[in-house]
Design a protein that fits this description.
The protein is α+β, with helices and mostly antiparallel strands. The chain is built from three helices and nine strands; from the N terminus they run αβαββββαββββ.
């Protein structure tokens, strides 16, 4: 009986892994197929910059995220609803219009002559990478928490 349970468990695990590979797919789409929120974000913050490629990342439950590579090399990731998750300037300054004021002010005051080259938004925090290589962490309101190692 124990052997049968182990075999059943192994087949269940194999089936779940195979299902994950089958349903997890990346698909190239056009920028017009992005959620409206994402299209507005790009239009406001990257006016005049064309999308080089747009990838829709699907999981078993539906769309997980969208990955956009802009013509200027900047990468932007959106959640399934089109809210920005990460903007990576690939070592170039990202636009500051969408970055919370507290973060912009802290960086300008504490790290003059540096620029934010990458910013990531999580549920309860922000992570910003500066042009000098320092990573900063902020709370959800944009208040400085610590320098990230």
């Amino acid at each position: 009986m124990r052997k049968l349970k182990k075999i059943t468990g192994a087949f269940t695990l194999i089936f779940l892994l195979m299902a994950g590979f089958v349903f997890a797919q990346e698909k190239v789409i056009s920028a017009n197929q992005l959620p409206k929120t994402a299209k507005n974000f790009l239009a406001v913050n990257f006016k005049g910059v064309a999308a080089g490629s747009v990838i829709e990342d699907r999981e078993i439950y539906g769309v997980d995220e969208y990955k956009v590579r802009l013509g200027n090399g900047i990468k932007v990731e959106f959640d399934s609803k089109g809210n920005w998750k990460e903007v990576d300037g690939e070592h170039q300054k990202v636009p500051y219009g969408f970055i919370p004021v507290n973060i912009r002010n802290y960086v300008a005051k504490s790290f003059p002559n540096t620029q934010i080259t990458k910013i990531e938004r999580k549920s309860w925090s922000y992570k910003a990478e500066l042009s000098n290589g320092i990573d900063l962490e902020f709370d959800k309101n944009g208040n400085f928490k610590r320098i990230d190692d």
